[in-house]
Design a protein that fits this description.
single chain; 4-stranded mixed sheet; 4 helices
Amino acid sequence: MTGLEVEVLGDALDAELIRRACVLAAATAGVDDGHVAVAFVDPDEIAALNAEHRGKAGPTDVLSFPVDGAGELVPGQRELGDVVICPEHTEDLTEAVVHGVLHLVGMDHETDEGEMLAVQAEVLSWIR
């Protein structure tokens, strides 16, 4: 299979909009093939994930769980990973999708010089 396969769990946002946001965000890192899942969860579920994986208490807006590392050569379809979003704690769901996918392709706004957030703004301008 070629192209980016996007699996959507939940209906907080239009599935086609989610797919487009994922494809555009991944393409900024040269990724145009693979699989990503976007899940919408309640505050309790994201708080549990936040505590387990980041050691932070309470709910957050978006978490990313990369599977195949950025730049890794993996036989078969690349599994980018999962983006988990809590609509109740997210101001802009489309932005959260883009943000999560950029993390999956190796970007990190906590360590770069503003590059990820600039790319995020650019991708959002293409969608809106």
